[in-house]
Specification:
Elements lengths: L5 E2 L2 H4 L8 E4 L9 H9 L5 E4 L10 H6 L3 E6 L6 H8 L4 E4 L2 H12 L4 E4 L6 H4 L3 E4 L5 E4 L5 E6 L2 E9 L3 E8 L1 E3 L4 E2 L8 H7 E8 L2 E2 L18 E4 L2 H5 L18
Parallel strand pairs: 1-16, 2-3, 2-11, 3-4, 4-5, 11-14, 12-15, 14-16
Antiparallel strand pairs: 6-10, 7-8, 9-10, 12-13
Helix pairs in contact: 5-7
């Protein structure tokens, strides 16, 4: 039996993502964002989406596109960043946001793909993260409508001392959306440098994971030692066009002065 997980188009790959679906989305800032899959979602009708991602794109790009269309109902993220629409919807009570320490978010995704239902971490002990009362949703008048519940805290012996840890649940999502530099038809993926970021974790967290790849190769062409995410975690692979591959935004363009150039 020949395994071929390649799909003809991004639209076909996301066609079964329906209302209320939860999505684990790779990327960090603008690096490694599965923008082609997100664009395909934006052309569909799925709404009331629950998204888990390090951040929620920027204004007019990445997950920011779905935000502007009011298609996202809830976000689990580590920060709001410079996405003004993200912050506006959160403070206006249009969007529920669960802010989570970045390392905790990463481990919640990894745990989901490893069959670990929960884990203890010291991150957040003694703060709203553990004690509750973190504003999840605001009311239109600016008051807090929904807050986070308190979490279980236990002490463990660490180097002869009793140290408190907070219990965090794994983050299983209906779908994982990721972008890879290279993939094969079996779903094995390779990421390029910083674009690796949250992508392997999002791939592990999704019950059905869809990968857009800049280069699609035949099985066996990727050295097993180079595989970052094995195909067991990936269910659909979409090969990008040259134009789609080249469409990469830069959040903050920084130029180095040439030799002898005076500073302005």
């Amino acid at each position: 039996m020949t395994i071929d997980k390649s799909v003809a188009s991004a639209d076909e790959a996301v066609a079964d993502i329906g209302d209320g679906a939860s999505l684990a989305v790779g990327g960090f800032g603008l690096s490694g964002v599965p923008i082609v899959l997100i664009d395909a979602l934006s052309r569909g009708s799925a709404t009331d989406l629950h998204v888990a991602s390090n951040n929620c794109g920027t204004d007019g790009w990445g997950l920011g596109i779905l935000l502007e269309q009011h298609r996202i109902a809830r976000v689990v993220a580590s920060y709001i960043g410079e996405n003004k629409e993200f912050g506006r919807q959160y403070l206006a009570g249009e969007l529920e946001v669960e802010l989570t320490p970045q390392g905790t978010l990463a481990e919640r995704m990894r745990a989901a793909g490893s069959g670990i239902p929960a884990f203890y971490t010291p991150a957040g002990v003694g703060t709203w993260v553990a004690d509750g009362e973190m504003p999840w949703r605001y009311a239109p008048d600016g008051s807090v409508a929904v807050t986070s519940p308190p979490k279980e805290v236990r002490e463990f012996d660490v180097d002869g001392e009793r140290v408190p840890f907070v219990l965090e649940l794994s983050l299983v999502c209906d779908f994982g959306l990721v972008r890879a530099a290279k993939g094969d038809r079996h779903g094995n993926l390779v990421f390029h440098r910083s674009a690796r970021n949250f992508n392997p974790l999002a791939a592990m967290a999704g019950r059905t994971t869809i990968a857009e790849v800049e280069e699609l190769v035949e099985p066996g062409e990727i050295d097993p030692d180079d595989v970052h995410v094995p195909g067991i975690f990936v269910h659909r692979v979409v090969e990008l066009t040259a134009e789609q591959v080249a469409n990469k935004h830069i959040e903050k363009r920084t130029l180095r002065r040439s030799s002898g150039e005076e500073s302005s």
